[in-house]
Amino acid sequence: MGSAPWLFTRICRFWAAVALATPVLWSNLDLHLDGMGRNGAIPLAQLQIQRSQNIPLTVTIRHSSNVWIDSHPLLDVALSASERWSVADIHMNPILLQEMAKGHRFQSLTTLDIFIDLSVDDRFDHISKFDDAFWSAFSLTPKLTHLRALSWDWSYFITPPFILPWAQLTRLTTSFTSNTEALTVLGKLSNVTECALTSILDFLETPSLTSLAVYGAGDADTVLSFVVRSRCANSLTSLQLRSSTINHDTALCLTEKLSSVTSLELGDFHGKLLSRSSTMSIVPAIPHFVRAFIDQWLSKRKSVTDLPPLNLLLTDKALPHPEDRKLTSLLSPLRKTGLVVTVSQAVARPDIMGEPFLY
What we know:
Blueprint: H1 4-11, H2 13-20, E1 28-32, H3 41-51, E2 57-62, H4 73-79, E3 85-92, H5 94-100, E4 111-116, H6 132-135, E5 146-149, E6 171-174, H7 179-186, E7 194-196, E8 211-216, H8 220-230, E9 238-243, H9 248-257, E10 263-268, H10 288-303, E11 310-316, H11 321-330, E12 339-344
Parallel strand pairs: 1-2, 2-3, 3-4, 4-5, 5-6, 6-7, 8-9, 9-10, 10-11, 11-12
Helix pairs in contact: 1-2, 3-4, 8-9, 9-10
Protein name: F-box domain-containing protein
InterPro entries: LRR_dom_sf
């Protein structure tokens, strides 16, 4: 919970009086459900909502998907004032989200930032297990205009079939599993002024493109087709491809066509980009894909005049942290050929609104 208003009440009587007479100070409800619910957190949350009077609420709710629960008393407290929620930032498992869908009204909600983990495991069989009320949790939000909805599991991107008031949205950030799905939603966005989407490369041709970033549903095949169709292989200097699964052969076919690229990032959320030995060693074996790329690079240096130096970042979620540093060190002699290779296990998750919109 936010501590600022509580601190004001402890400075002196004058500051306490000012804080208690300023409802807006109490309107930011920040709940991290992991470990909360003890030491008076529940009555404090109730008191904060009471002191905010009728001021619209900004609500942040965080809960780790590592510990799944189907209810939480602090969530119940926040939902008791759901009709006053104006801005909501929600990061939780779908079981808790299902609790939110049970008869709660979000009539004042204008901005929704939602991230849910729809992992398939022994706790949760499939997204079809949820009823219509779950997928309609935010359908009756007459003031909602800003939506950021990036929902995935930790292996691949998926877009849940939420029923949302698309026509009234003015700002949207989301991802789609298919171009057909993307176009279907785009047809409903009659009032949108800012929009950041993925999976639309199949419909684009950009012959002058110099920088391309593709996250999520855009795989190497899609990017390869796009580059060939756009005839931008010679103009492209920067490429970022972060996907659920990167096919080695397709990725190598793509990089073979890029003669001007100076910055290249290939990131695999699923952890299949770099093959690993079954046992750790002091000097790890160079993965097959990396060897193939190096051979391609050295061959290209001989055949392409004025080939620019290349900074290559390879990220693989399943790569152990000590091994990524060892591989980076092992590949450092390639710098003398103009190839700088960095290997990492930290695949950056997309935050499209916070990054330049590059495609």
